[in-house]
Amino acid sequence: MTALITGASTGIGRDMAIYLSTLGYDLILVARSRDKLLKLKKLLPVRVKVIAADLSDPENAKRVYYVCRSFRVDLLVNNAGIGEVGPFEKTSLEKELNLINLNVTALHILSKLFYRRFASEGRGTILNVASSAAFYPGPLMAAYYASKAYVLNLSQSLYREAKESGNGVKISVLCPGPVQTEFNKRIGVTNSFSPASSEKVAKYAIDKTLEGKFLIIPEAKMKVSVAASSLLPAEMKSKLVYLIQKGKSPL
Ligand SMILES: NC(=O)c1ccc[n+]([C@@H]2O[C@H](COP(=O)([O-])OP(=O)(O)OC[C@H]3O[C@@H](n4cnc5c(N)ncnc54)[C@H](OP(=O)(O)O)[C@@H]3O)[C@@H](O)[C@H]2O)c1
After folding, report:
1. Given this model, what pLDDT does residue 4 score?
2. What share of the chain is helix, strand, coil (3-state, %, to 5)?
3. Phi, psi angles (nearest 5°) of residue 205
4. Domain assignment of residue 189, given as a range
5. 205, 174 Cβ separation under 8 angstroms
6. What are the backbone dihedrals phi and psi of residue 128, each rounded to the nearest 5 degrees, phi first?
7. What is the count of structural domains for the chain?
8. Is 189 within a domain?
9. Is the CB of 147 under 6 A from ligand 1?
10. CA distance linking residue 152 with residue 164, whole number of Å
């Protein structure tokens, strides 16, 4: 069995790679930092292919797929993602376009190309990493929340299409709350809630994916948050997130 993981150099993606290796999966690891991926490769007792690629360039996302055509791939984990924080009038358009290209466009390209391939093979699993942010509007982190809503919505559609057609493709989507990784450091904020352990989230997500679960929400408190999102009026949801985001102090 082989898994391809994007964003495997740090955080949840790295921990998924380590856990999948203990299950005997060979790995294809993608991120920009070749050195970190090569270091990880040395630690893992399975076959590992490293692809250094900046997935914010759509051509690179396509290239990753074409490079993998000669490999059997059983599990695609679309995990690479970045955030951007601040009032919409002040955040950088360039950074937001970069975020959309990575969180949305690259994920869309890889989902599309692997979904087609998996459907033609009658097997294969895609795990898309969204966020609990997917269930809420995200004032002061607007592009990030919107990007994760896209990931959740796309995954729900693919799950339904695969189920109705019986084409053998399995779809899961991971929606964690705050997790202890490089994510917040990269955007210069601290977590307002105690973050979950990346190792635990990664293991939980892989176990649930392999069990065939669609919507994966680690931690009871985040399950409550997601359940509440369908009960609260939109006005209250955006106010709540505004206050939470405002409380996250810059580093
Ligand atoms: N941490 C949280 O609180 C949290 C909560 C909910 C959801 N998530 C989601 O979980 C996923 C993983 O994030 P994380 O928390 O593990 O953060 P992280 O430690 O910052 O990991 C992000 C990964 O994405 C890669 N990456 C970033 N930009 C890239 C690019 N342009 N091209 C290719 N790879 C790129 C990074 O590697 P390089 O820098 O080497 O490219 C790294 O491997 C993201 O989709 C994030 O939105 C995180």
Report:
1. 98
2. 55, 15, 30
3. -65, -45
4. 2-246
5. yes
6. -100, 135
7. 1
8. yes
9. no
10. 18
Ligand 1 contact via 54 beta carbon (within 6 Å):
yes
Atom of ligand 1 nearest to the CA of 54: 32
Report which DSSP code applies to 188: T
Write the pLDDT tens digit of every residue in 97-151: 999 999 999 999 999 999 999 999 999 999 999 999 999 999 999 999 999 999 9
Which of these is catalytic: 136, 145, 148, 204? Answer: 148
Q: What is the pLDDT of residues 36-90, one digit of tens each?
A: 999 999 999 999 999 999 999 999 999 999 999 999 999 999 999 999 999 999 9
What's the pLDDT at 189?
84
Q: At 121, which CATH number?
A: 3.40.50.720
At 86, list the tokens: 């601040």
Question: How big is the chain, counted in residues?
Answer: 251
Determine the pLDDT at residue 248.
Answer: 80
